[in-house]
Amino acid sequence: MFSMIVNHKYATQQQHLLKKQNQNKKYKKAVRKILFGWGKFLDNKILKCYSQFPIDAYYINLDKSVERRKHIESLDFILPLERFSACLNETIGEIGCGESHINVLNKIYQSDNSSDYTIIIEDDFTILNNIKFKRFLIRLFDMLQEKKPDVVVMSGTRKIIYKDIFYKNFFKLFKCNTTTGYIIKKSYIPKLIESFKASVHILNMSSKLNNAYRSQILDSLFPIDQLWTYLQKKDEWYVYYDSTFMMQKDGYSFIGQCNTSPNLKSLHLITYCLETRLMDNYDKMKWSDLAGLFDSNYWDEICFDKIFSKDKYGLMKKKLVNNTGIIKI
To answer: Could you give the CA distance from residue 83 to residue 232 in angstroms, rounded to a whole number?
Structure first.
């Protein structure tokens, strides 16, 4: 008798469980159907915006990085993407990265295409949420046409933004690293190229130094995504309020010659919001301000002896920009 009661109870529980599983399946199927329909609606809206305001898009990819090429081509990017062959520097990977960005920017600037803006992404760019990415693209079209910014950063690390300067879902950028993805205005390209050229110039000089410690410091402080911070605070640079759905993908980096650590990805989720009045105080403390401890405002070989002749850290401060903010070579 007892076993019959137990079996009946067990059978009842199984029926409830199967019923709940069927309900969950129906719910998940309904959700997928809704998301699919919503995604198609957003796709059509994006393509309509694109037809009225075309944006070019390139991804930078090494010829030997076949897996990364497949990854980029598998993304639901919506907009047409054109591949650009990257440069590889076996000695200092950041030099190849800088030269790749310079070359693609030169191609865009010299082309006869009438597009005012171009998207540039690296082959480790990834999308974690397609719906959020599509909503970003729709808002981006509005942002570019109404605000006409110089650059919009798509993904970045160590972001610092002006909390009281914004346009809808985009905040004025004060400082941000990582060139994984950005949108640039065609007329602004020469200015960014000059910054990237300065970076490549400095890194090339550091490769000639005998002291390995010097090279290590210069290679970590002067890649292109470090020097471009000078332009961010003075020009019209913006960043989307939520960049947790588009970021740098984990994997092997030919530039750093190592695997990117998943723990570092938390940096993409960190954004410091400062009011305008606090920016000046912050700017005085951070190393990238580079106070004018030298008369010259450009880098040459003589500067290296001055930098490392005394205090290793105090003399790292160096004025790199002139009144217009362009870094001279």
So the answer is: 27
